[in-house]
Amino acid sequence: MRKALFVGLSAFLLFLVNGCGAGKSTLVDDYFIAVEGKTVSNKALNAFIFENRNNELHFRNYMRARFGVTGEDFDVDVSVNGQPIRLLFYSKNDFDRYFEKYNFKYTGLVDDITADQMAANHFVAISAVDAAGNDALDESHIIYQEMIAFLNDFKKQYLRL
């Protein structure tokens, strides 16, 4: 009787601590493919997400130098394996709106962090759409593997700076 009570109480406490997955944080080691991002043609897109270990201003400067874009919310046209692809970048507000459910946990260190930077977007999220409006980050897309390789290369080039 005592052993059964102990086992039952232990299981209940474990259930409370784990909370059925509620409150769990998502860590992004290399990259993470999130579902239900921005919509195109009434279809929610997947997004390639990586941790921004630089400050937000650094990312904006990089995007201006590489693609000539400014601001927080922008799209960029590229070619992947000869196919035209539109990359959709997420602003902090969009990132919070679409991916809040993942409860991403920032693990990077930013030197001399200020209160404003604490509220900054510590993750970069990118969706990719082909010329027909299809999600190029859907595993069934013909260039899915090439898209992952392209975005990984983009991430490595940016973080190297």
From TrEMBL:
The keyword Signal applies. Keywords: Signal. Residues 1-22 form the signal peptide. This is DUF4136 domain-containing protein. The lineage of its organism: Bacteria, Pseudomonadati, Bacteroidota, Flavobacteriia, Flavobacteriales.
